[in-house]
Amino acid sequence: MKTMTLELPEALADDVDNAVKAGWFTDPQEAVRQALREFLNSRRLQLQEQQQLEDIDWARRAAKR
Asked: I need a surface site. Which of 2, 43, 58, 63 has the fewest CB within 10 A?
């Protein structure tokens, strides 16, 4: 597993801590992983489309050379 370090605004960090204390998550890391997972899943098609458009753009530029 890759380790990442991030800084959160106090209010957001407090919300994460409160969610852990309420039993929604076992620890802050689980809360952040779940939030990222949900964000990426909700944007997956948008991200795929963006990557495909970037690939097409790259191919067009390469063909002009």
From this structure: 2
